[in-house]
């Protein structure tokens, strides 16, 4: 199983809308990939690889801060409407059958109250804000051909994603850091990111050169999804699968441990696209295969399962 690479140069960031024929081509190719495996690599999106790596480096500087500093920016777990901030290692478990994930993360979900100060993390705020904006623009550019590919009316998806980057939409930019792993301290079945499917519309994923991401193929085997320079990996989320009455596929994936104690770390940036809070998601083919659900209700229900009931870092810093 190979994940298709689609050339998105005709509608990359900053480009005018291409001809109807070209948009149709993009739509057919992307829709085919999302129908088959639920993942596609887009190349020439307008994202500069160097800028992606620079953003990761700025994030790494944050992750390298002492715990006492990072804890000041920890995500609160006592308020389900406040999901931004730092998430300590082994706090989340994306697969409930496995021990907690060997990763830490920083969420940018609006409203953002946990920005690290410029003193603690120079450039972090500006860099993440600008990355968020670029992701938002690319997400909207992907929706247009997708509407065409699925034979939906123009703006079908766009109209339900008007408030990205505000308190009325749960879309999240997440910086992930997977620290080096000492095999001797790893619990049974513990990996960097447990097998899961994403929750929302779709996800834009930017990986570094350290592998580990794997996707389940149709035979139920996990296969590597390597980093390809100058591409953005896009995958369908569960809400989109439901929205399209299972035409598009939300596929299980995971991040495995490095092969040996080779001190390799991993970083990624994930942009989880969700419809606006109040959007009601009803099967787009009129089949009513799944009952209508509000975007916010759905994401809150899914997120509730992700966190362990153990003492969370946020309880150290109730503010
Ligand atoms: O870090 C990665 O490459 C994947 C992370 C992921 O799948 C997720 O956070 O949903
Ligand atoms: Fe994921």
UniProtKB/TrEMBL annotation:
<dbReference type="InterPro" id="IPR044861">
    <property type="entry name" value="IPNS-like_FE2OG_OXY"/>
</dbReference>
<dbReference type="InterPro" id="IPR005123">
    <property type="entry name" value="Oxoglu/Fe-dep_dioxygenase_dom"/>
</dbReference>
<dbReference type="InterPro" id="IPR026992">
    <property type="entry name" value="DIOX_N"/>
</dbReference>
<keyword id="KW-0479">Metal-binding</keyword>
<dbReference type="GO" id="GO:0046872">
    <property type="term" value="F:metal ion binding"/>
</dbReference>
<dbReference type="InterPro" id="IPR027443">
    <property type="entry name" value="IPNS-like_sf"/>
</dbReference>
<feature type="domain" description="Fe2OG dioxygenase">
    <location>
        <begin position="169"/>
        <end position="275"/>
    </location>
</feature>
<dbReference type="GO" id="GO:0016491">
    <property type="term" value="F:oxidoreductase activity"/>
</dbReference>
<dbReference type="Pfam" id="PF03171">
    <property type="entry name" value="2OG-FeII_Oxy"/>
</dbReference>
<keyword id="KW-0408">Iron</keyword>
<dbReference type="Pfam" id="PF14226">
    <property type="entry name" value="DIOX_N"/>
</dbReference>
<keyword id="KW-0560">Oxidoreductase</keyword>
<protein>
    <submittedName>
        <fullName>Si:dkey-10o6.2</fullName>
    </submittedName>
</protein>
<comment type="similarity">
    <text>Belongs to the iron/ascorbate-dependent oxidoreductase family.</text>
</comment>
<dbReference type="InterPro" id="IPR050231">
    <property type="entry name" value="Iron_ascorbate_oxido_reductase"/>
</dbReference>
